[in-house]
Specification:
Elements: H1 3-22, E1 28-35, E2 38-45, E3 61-62, H2 67-80, E4 101-103, E5 113-115, H3 122-126, H4 149-156, H5 172-179, H6 196-209, H7 213-222, H8 236-239, E6 246-248, E7 255-257, E8 280-281, H9 283-294, E9 298-299, E10 302-303, H10 307-313
Antiparallel strand pairs: 1-2, 3-8, 4-5, 6-7, 9-10
Helix pairs in contact: 2-6, 2-7
Amino acid sequence: MTQSRTQSGLERLHAAMAARVENGEMPGMVSLIAQRDDVHVDAIGLKALGSTEPMRRDTLFRVASMTKPILAAATMMLVEEGKLRLDEPVDTWLPELANRRVLRRVDGPLDDTVAARRPITLDDLLTFRMGFGHLFEPTFDPPFDPPFPIVKAADALQLVLGQPDPRTPHAVDEWIRRFGTLPLMHQPGERWQYNAGSLVLGVLLARVAGQPLGDLFSTRIFEPLSMHETGFWLPAELTQKLPAYYMASTETGQLEERNVSTPDEWTRPPVFPSGAGGLVSTVDDFLAFARMLLSKGVYDGKRLLSERSVEVMTTNHLTPE
C-alpha cells in the first residue's frame, strides 16, 4: 500500500469517527490501527459530555465483551497443558451444573422441564451453546430478554447475566450455586445464546487453575504481554483515566450518564470477576494481545499459545443451523 493511499484511508477513517462524536453518539473515542511496525492512534473528542478533558492515547476503557477473547486464550492455555479437554463435561469442575433440567418451552414455567440429553461441555461454553444466555424475541420491545419466567428468575437471583455493570453482589461459588438452581433454556449444543457461557467459563477456569480469574489472566497473559493497564481492577491513579459511563435511553435514543462503574469501583477486586465483560484496558495494551494472536501465539520471541490453539480460536465452530 502506498503512503498516499494509507494517508487517504486514515483521513477518511478520522472523518467517519469524528462525525459520530459530532453527532452526539458518544463524547469521544480512541482508535488504533497497526500494520507491522506502523501504528496510528487517533484520539477524538472528550472523556465526558460537557467536559474539557480530552480523550488520550492512554485513556482507560471498560472493554466489556472484548474480555471474552482473553478468556478464550486462557482456556486454550489450560487445554494445552492437559488440564482441560474441549469435549470434557464441565460437571467435573462445576458439580453445580450436573444433571441439568431443560425447559420444555423457553417461555414456560420453571418446573415444566425435561432431562438434558447430555452434559454441558467446555466446547459448549466457548461457543455459547451451553443452553443458556440472552434471549432474542423480535416481537417484544426491547427484543432482548423478554419477561419470561426464566429471565425473571435469573434477575431475582441477582446473577447480572447481561452487562458487566452494575456488578453481581455474589462471590464466585455463590454465583454458580445460584445459577445451578435454574433450568437450561435449551438443550446443550442446540442453540447459540450470547454471554452466559463466558460467565460460567470464568468460574470453571478459576477452579481449574486454583486461583482467582484475575490472577490467572495476570500471570499467563497480562504480565508476559506487558499489559500493565489491563485488569478487573487497577490502582486509583489509573482508574481516574476512565471516561464517564453512558448508555442510550431506550425511549429517546439519547445518551444518558449512568451512576455505576465509577472510577472508584475499579480500584478494588470485584467479588465476581466477569469473564464475559469485566476488564478495563487501553488501546496499546489490547494491541499487544492482538499482535500475539496475529503472530500465531508468539509475542516478543516467546510462545504463549500454540499455533493450533490460535487456529481453533479463530475458526467458526457453528453449524448452519
